[in-house]
Amino acid sequence: MFEVLRREWVYFWYYFTVQFQQVFPYWALGILIGSVISVFGKEKIHALLGALQGKRLGVLGVVPASLIGIASPLCMYGTIPIAASFSEKGVKDDWLAAFMMSSILLNPQLLIYSASLGTTVLLIRLVTCFLCGIAAGLLVRLFYRNKSFFNFSGFGESATRDTDPNPVLRLLKNIWRNIRATGIYFLIGIVLSALFQRYVPASVVEKLFGNNRGFGVLMAATIGVPLYACGGGTIPLIAGWLSSGMSLGSAAAFMITGPATKITNLGAMKIVLGMRRFILYIVFSIVFAWVCGMVVDIIW
């Protein structure tokens, strides 16, 4: 029994260290860059959305709004007060929908994490999240042109926690908050990936998420709902699945429904949408993820 346990520990430690060495540099770099943007660039990035208000962009405004959402370093509970303040200033709901949707799916920190999956996966994630924000904005403009989509009553722009007068200390405190917020999920993701690689045959992954692409993409979009807890924590899992035969389309679907239906994001969206529009939001996220996954598999 001792020899069996020792052998399994050796295998587990091998897979763990391989995954750790591959992903850790991107995790650390993502925290550093994300903190720098949060401390020194957050206000400037969000000011760009306010600056769009005076421009006659019409429907095209959803394009820069989606890009600004990706550049925003805030979580959804931090994004809602920002969006509420923009709504009070007259920014249109379709622009806010594009901004909030892309902000849910991606941020600079998660973008750096995703680079560990390779250039192709990084590009797929960036493009699909950008298009998802645009699609959300267009749908809100089409079906809620003359009525309000969001309910921001009771929300105001929250005060920043980065208030230390010393810029170096502000940055260090932000880095520490990011480490505390994501570190445990990062380690859990590597542990799960190591266990997965050791005990789940690659043929199973290929059968579920590789060969049968239509079903595999739909399944990946569906399991993104309960499995996604933290962006950094899922990167090792996605890396393991891709190496075991998961298609790029299935990975793309998972990377959309995961953050879109993350429990904290769902809680935030339920507050500002109400039940009917909240259900529409979930349906939209899953359908868009499935369509994107199918298109990605056709292209690649």
Task: Tell me about this structure.
There is one protein chain. The chain has 300 residues and is mostly helical. It is 80% helix and 0% strand. The longest helix is centred in the first third of the chain and has 39 residues, at 2-40. The protein is globular, with a radius of gyration of 20 Å.
What is the makeup of the main sheet? none
> How would you describe the oligomerization state of the chains in this entry?
single chain
Number of strands: 0
Mean of all residue-level pLDDT scores:
81
The low-confidence runs, each spanning 5 or more residues with pLDDT under 50, are none
Helix vs. strand class? mainly alpha
Give the amount of beta strand, in percent. Answer: under 5%
Helix content: over 70%
- The helix/strand series, from N terminus to C terminus, equals HHHHHHHHHHHHH
Brief summary:
This protein has 13 helices and no strands. The chain has helices at 2-40, 42-52, 62-71, 76-88, 93-105, 108-114, 119-143, 167-199, 202-211, 213-227, 231-243, 248-260, 263-299.
